[in-house]
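Feature request, filed as a ticket because there's no other form

It would be nice if the structure record came with a short human-readable summary line next to the tokens. Right now we just get the raw output. Example of a typical job, pasted below so the devs can see what we mean:
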Amino acid sequence: MRSQKAALEELAQNINRLQPFHPGSLILNEQHFYQNSILLGWSQKNAHPVTLRHLANFGRKMTSEKILASANFVRTELPIRLSLKIKELQSLPYQVISNYHLNQVYQSYYHCFNAFRRVEKIETLEDNEDFCDFVKNMLDDHLIVLPHLMMGALEVSILKIMSQSDLDKFMSSMVRSRISRRVIMDQHTSMSKTFMEALRLQKDDDGGDNDIKPPDYIGEAFQLCSAHEHLKLSYNMIINFLQGLYPNMQMPELVINGDDLKFQFMTNHLSYIFTEILRNSLRSTIEQFIKLNGRDRGFAQMSPPPV
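Raw output as currently delivered:
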């Protein structure tokens, strides 16, 4: 058995590791939490609500003035939204925020917050082109955030260091805010790209740039969608997946009632909505069919009811 002196000597060698902050973090430390007046100042501001209707209407008729206004809105709005999420992360129990994955989320958010708050006012279209490149880089850098967020939440849930209801509420808040930020940034960069392309073409013709409005365009986030087409695309994708899970089963047919509807919407969000609804419906239909007919029976000649 080791002597008390030897134990104390070993403890002394590792005393620097006994701290309430992640030892590998370049950001998460006592100065950051308690002496960061910059973060506190931004987090005391209110985020501006932005609806899909607002974004769509704004993108219908573009001018250089509106492009610059959009750029400066993104420039000032993103630090506010990020600071609010950082404060939300700071309010988590120590065992939660010290999780490796959530620590990575925290550092990524703070890096992005620092980068956005240092961007100077966008005054020219050339400034905006540089700003769009910056925004795209930020979007690419943040692709790692969602996997870290999901893994962190999974580990927190397994260890039961946070109630499931509080964890669900936290995750819902983080994912919703992430979607809204990315939509705002994507919409601005896509409108800017299309505006500049149309502007260059128009200048080649007559040198004017007062009213650029590409046909049927209100930004990359919004595209003309066919309800029937997107339902069929989602259905085909899910069927291919489910066929691997139930190789000897005929897949339920998709029956679409009503006329097709075409409308402006965010295609990636619409596909996600349709895919989730159809996946749940199709899998439930198949499982119920197997339950009623016996799992050991061959289903090659039998079809589940349609969805």
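Something like this underneath would help us a lot:
The first strand starts at residue 223 and ends at 226.
The chain has a mean pLDDT of 80.
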